[in-house]
Amino acid sequence: SKNKYNNSRLYLISLRLRRDLIPVGREVAGVVLQVGPKVTFFQPEDEVVGILPLDSSFSGLCEVIDTDEYYLVQKPEKLSSVCVAGVLRDGLCAYSALHTHARMAAGHTLLVTDGASSFGLMCIQLACYHGAKVLTTSHSPQNHTFLEQLRPSVARVIPVYNSSSDLLSVVMEETGGLGVDIVVDSGVHLHEEEEEVESEEKKLLPHKHDIISVLGVGGHWVTSHQDLQLDPPDCRLLYLKSASVSFLNPEVWTASSSQQGRYLHILKDIVEKMSSGVLRPQPEEAVPLYEATVAMETVQRHPKKKAVVQL
């Protein structure tokens, strides 16, 4: 999306890797055509999937891509290329949020905002697999019904549309007044007065004070909000709870080679869990290459939308 493009460009500039153009469609799935003499992981005809780095010279919409083997993993045979390309980044974000940042363990209680989004769904399914108790919010009646029908089931679906529920009171009721161990958001409200000027979608986001309030002692808040501002009262409440805030930025995995081995392990685990049915994303409908421009315009207008282009 346009927002992700701008964020990626700022991230590159901060790393002193100035580029005028950022490749689009960096989540790719395809077949290896040729390998160099030092390549050890793959052979021609192998089916692979991966995420191109921000400074890649190739877009994912190119018919042929030249990239490093350390950005790719083997794609399980029964896994659809369209499916895995559409949700690989969300799977990486969910894995990073729950394992890398929050150190999730069996028995933890987790709040995922907007659980019906692709990222939220990955978080819910991954958390349920590891034995966590999951609470989530729904942004529409349709999303609410979808989330209530999930299997394994979540402990509680909290409707936040039409001011239909008080997040804090419901979470405290579900946790016996203790609060949750982990909160994973998809964005937050910073100030109450923002509501009058923001879109309907953003009005459904929780306020930062609500998130801090639902955290239990020693809790972890993993946020996707890069411009988060915490005032002294917010910090004091976090301090009193000995709670922590982590910023979720999946681009760090390909920005440095120091975590390459761990990154590849995560990608392999994600595609294996998708292949075995642990992670079951909503099906994505691929569009042909000649419709890519129109699809990109739609994605720019709706930041949470995505499009899978099939060559």
UniProtKB/TrEMBL annotation:
Cross-referenced InterPro entries: CRYZL1, ER, GroES-like_sf, NAD(P)-bd_dom_sf
SMART domains hit by this protein: PKS_ER
Enoyl reductase (ER) domain residues: 6-309
GO MF annotation terms: oxidoreductase activity
SUPFAM superfamilies per the UniProt record, alphabetical: GroES-like, NAD(P)-binding Rossmann-fold domains
Protein name (record): Crystallin, zeta (quinone reductase)-like 1
Native source organism of the sequence: Oreochromis niloticus
High-level lineage: Eukaryota, Metazoa, Chordata, Craniata, Vertebrata
